[in-house]
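Operator note (shift B, R.M.): manual run for GNAT family N-acetyltransferase requested after the automated queue skipped it. Running by hand, logging everything below so the morning shift can see what happened. Input copied straight from the record, untouched. If output looks odd, do not overwrite the archive copy; leave it for review.
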Amino acid sequence: MIQARNKLSQEELSEAKKVINCCQNYDGTYRDPYLSNMLNFDPNMPAFFLYYEKGELVGLLTVYADDQDVEVTILVHPGHRRQGIARALFTSFERETASFPIRSVTFQTERIFLENHPDFASNWGLIEDEETETWLGKDRRPYPLANVSHLEVLLADSSYQDQISQLKFQAFSEEHESREVVDRYVAEALKDPESRSYIL
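Run finished. Output pasted below as returned.
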């Protein structure tokens, strides 16, 4: 049974994280899918598709849609793969979002997954995007920083929102990205209690 949601309940979020962790451990992947719809261009659009088998969550499709070029991530519990669950989730996504103005759909995955599943892209009729991202992480332990007396680092708050948006738009926006999208990103990041933004 597939359930479509525009927002996950706490219980669904907990179940989703268990499936994600199980898949990451099995596949050797690390990237977490975005489990919120707060940046999606339409908060009413379904962003989560949950596949249940005998009351247990075994598959998950997430939608990241800050504009009409959306990104989907599909995760299926390793013990339930090769049973059509991923295709069923994607078919449900296509059906449930047909009335929304989606221009394109990009599948998010990691290099190691593609290497371990060499038929994945061809089976789905996908072409690898040459402009893929590489994510690097740093352990959460302190490390020494140089002390530069003429610079100051401050915790950002909403009073800096316009300045941050302007700088982000000028420095990091892609050609197709609108200022409204950047403003929404910055506003949500500053409101998010689990995120901290700093300014220099």
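Quick read of the result: The chain has a mean pLDDT of 86. The longest strand covers residues 56-64.
Leaving this for review. - R.M.
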